Amino acid sequence: MSPSLAWLTLVIAGALDVGWAISMKYAEGYTRLGWSVASLVLLAAFVFLLGRALKVLEVGVAYSVWTGIYSVWTGIGAAGTFLMGVVLFGETLSALKVAGIVLVLMGIAALKLA
After folding, report:
1. For a FRET experiment, which of 9, 18, 49, 99 has its CA 20 to 30 Å from that of 42?
2. Where exactly are the transmembrane stretches of this chain (predicted)?
């Protein structure tokens, strides 16, 4: 896998992370079978893709993509989940929240360029 494909894999995994978070909301504490199964499948898929990306990308950057507050992975998941929360669940949208997401995304860009 090329580095470009590894980054694409990481982005796809980030999208699956958003799907996982949304499916957990719909699963209502894992009391709804269909959504619970979807949640677990999405979880397995994004962890698998993260593992594939880690075979190519530097572990310090790729892992921070997945876990840190300043990370690419968290940025993708946070921004996507934030937007889906607004769209699907009517959660509030404020200038301060948007500014926070923008700062996270700026951190993503910095990590990608580093």
Report:
1. 99
2. 31-51, 63-89, 95-113
- Regions of the chain with pLDDT less than 50: 68-70
Residues 6+ positions from 1 with CB-CB distance below 8 Å: 9, 52, 53, 55, 56
Provide the token pair at 3. Answer: 């580095």
* Per-residue model confidence (pLDDT) at position 68: 45
DSSP alpha helix (H) spans, the chain: 3-27, 33-54, 59-67, 72-89, 95-113
Contacts 24+ apart (CB under 8 A), 54-62: 55/1, 55/6, 56/1, 56/2, 56/3, 56/5, 56/6, 57/3, 57/6, 57/7, 57/10, 61/111, 61/114, 62/6, 62/10
Residue carrying structure tokens 């190519």: 56
What residue spans define the domains of the chain? 3-113
Looking at residue 70, its pLDDT comes to: 39
Residue reference for tokens 């397995």: 44
